[in-house]
Specification:
Blueprint: E1 6-12, E2 18-24, H1 31-34, E3 38-42, E4 47-53, E5 60-66, H2 67-72, E6 75-79, E7 86-91, H3 93-113
Antiparallel strand pairs: 1-2, 1-7, 3-4, 4-5, 6-7
Bound molecules: zinc ion.
């Protein structure tokens, strides 16, 4: 069985737009080169720690994820721990880009009103 290990990460910026980076699960720490305000660290063989500077409240939040969950779950959503609003998606490329398209469209429409 060939396992698909490509993942997308989408991180919200201060303007509320998501920026997407594509990484490989086995080289997950390369995400650190893509996103300056996020750090991913392998804690052990099964766990990764994701820390991010929250674009909403400007505090650092950290989350622990099981690598198996990243493979099995469709989409991992990390929210701001203060506001509960999503700021980070990790998952299959298509699912992440679909989700980001939805959000970015909402933002464009919101701007269009003003
Ligand atoms: Zn926050």
């Amino acid at each position: 069985m060939i396992l698909d290990t490509s993942l997308s990460i989408a991180l919200k910026d201060e303007l509320g737009r998501y920026n997407i980076g594509n990484i490989n699960l086995f080289k997950i720490e390369e995400a650190n080169n893509i996103f300056k305000l996020m750090k991913i660290k392998l804690k052990n063989k099964n766990t990764v720690m994701v820390s991010l500077k929250c674009p909403l409240c400007e505090k650092w939040h950290s989350f622990n994820y099981c690598i198996n969950d990243m493979i099995n779950q469709e989409l991992i959503v990390c929210g701001c721990k203060t506001l509960g609003t999503p700021v980070l998606f990790i998952g299959e490329n298509d699912r992440v880009s679909d989700r980001v398209k939805q959000y970015n469209r909402v933002i464009k429409e919101t701007y269009a009103i003003f």
